[in-house]
Amino acid sequence: MTCVNAKKLVLETGFTFDYENLVGSGKVTIDDVVSLEEKINDAQAAIQVMRKTGVIRGHLSKDGEPEKVLFSQLPYIKAENLNSPAIIRKLKDFSASIKDRVDAVISFGIGGSFLGNKVLFDIHCGEFWNGMSNAERNGYPRMYFSGNSIDPRRTSELVENIERMAKTYHKHAGKKFCLMMIVISKSGGTLDTMSNFMVVYEALKNHEHIDIEIVAVTDPNEEKKTLLKKLAEENHWPTFAVPDGVGGRFSIFSEVGLITGACIGFDIEAFLAGAKSMDEACQRADVWQNPALLNATLKYLAAEKYGRDIEVLMPYADYLKSTSEWYIQLLAESLGKKYDRNGKIVNYGRTPIVAVGTTDMHAQTQQHQEGALNKVIQFIRVNEWDIDPVIGDMFPSAQKLTDISGIRMSQALDVALASNAQALISDYRFNATFTMPKMNAFHLGELLYMLAISIAYEGELADVDAFDQPGVEAYKRIMGPSLQKLKVK
Ligand code: PA5
């Protein structure tokens, strides 16, 4: 372990982890990190074994069987891997087959079968994609998400919206509107996903102006077929796989997330290349040179030694809000555990919070600055924006407005972030900043993969199984019979 006085780790790609406000006197100290050296080395060795063999000590599937953890293989496109050249070809062929043909896609899914898909959509499409013309969307379909809750109003309004579009389309183009429904469920029968799918399918399947195509994304296991797989076979729906050994919260790098990429013309290969580049950096033995191991170590120490067990992920970019929402699941399901791997009750975990800059400076920051001293504020910053308007001098007689004219919006955003970080640390409020060089597929792959592998490292440091989620079974045991009772009535 090199002893450093550095304040940031900068990768060759430009991705930066600035930990100045997290490490030092009154913060996590270098001595703290040094004292953890053995654990850090063990964590690094364990994750190297996971990379090579998929084996993680103590990890069992829901059925109590030993299960491999294979997400770290996903960035590498290789014949023997889950993301083989054939899978990438299949995704590209799928993309070409819907371009200029399918008018709208509804992607049904929840949790790991939704959150990553929304991230790719937001980064590539932004907020206004569905209002653009076909030409502006480069021939790719409009895209909607459903199944992420069981909300009667939203689902009904989605149906009405599709009906309205189809009617208008038929009037102008004189042909049927092509609607694709992509149903994503690893287990193949999740209530939220399937109830929305059935409601929307029933409402639209005999619509005079709509042709429907259905694609299923589910566990491909032939011996224990999921309900969705059986339906796909019976109805001849094309299928994609939720690969074995890839949990929902890591599935953005697999066919689950990449199918959304294929629907919108997102650069899948650049995304995986970014993840691969990050995985390579995250294999470095020296913790100060390994962004994920360093991130995991500092957050672990901040929580265990200094009581900072809430992590606010606060990107300064509207379209990264869904990245924060994706991270909620990753952190909460992976590390929020009652038992450690020796069966001891530890009630481990850091609570994740979504925030967005500058929005939440006008809402949450009061609490971050003066509330309980139990948080790490993790900022995400974009270094270079593709579009970056200069604030015009619209009202020269208003001095306050003239003062902010002539500067770029990104400069104002950066000043806001830096001011927030400085104010927080002035009162020992731990914070750190990840900088993405640009908001594109490659750097998004880097960022998300770094967060994912960081969770794997922290699981080792805390000695909890980061790859199961037994806690979500508790409510399911209550909900199942309650739903059955409704049916009987
Ligand atoms: O992380 C997980 O495994 C869960 O959040 C699942 O992704 C979520 O429950 C959806 O499950 P499924 O894909 O089986 O429908």
From TrEMBL:
Keyword terms, alphabetized: Gluconeogenesis, Glycolysis, Isomerase
Any GO BP annotation: glucose 6-phosphate metabolic process
Entry's EC annotation: 5.3.1.9
Short name of any one Pfam family annotated for the protein: PGI
InterPro entries reported in the protein's UniProt record: G6P_Isomerase (IPR001672), SIS_dom_sf (IPR046348), SIS_PGI_1 (IPR035476), SIS_PGI_2 (IPR035482)
Pathway per the UniProt entry: Carbohydrate degradation; glycolysis; D-glyceraldehyde 3-phosphate and glycerone phosphate from D-glucose: step 2/4
Highest taxon listed in the record's lineage: Bacteria
Catalytic activity: alpha-D-glucose 6-phosphate = beta-D-fructose 6-phosphate
Gene3D superfamilies: Glucose-6-phosphate isomerase like protein, domain 1
A GO cellular component entry from the record: cytosol
SUPFAM superfamilies according to UniProt: SIS domain
MF-aspect GO terms: carbohydrate derivative binding; glucose-6-phosphate isomerase activity; monosaccharide binding
Protein's UniProt keywords contain Cell membrane: no
Family to which this protein belongs: Belongs to the GPI family.
Name by which UniProt lists this protein: Glucose-6-phosphate isomerase
Organism: Selenobaculum gibii
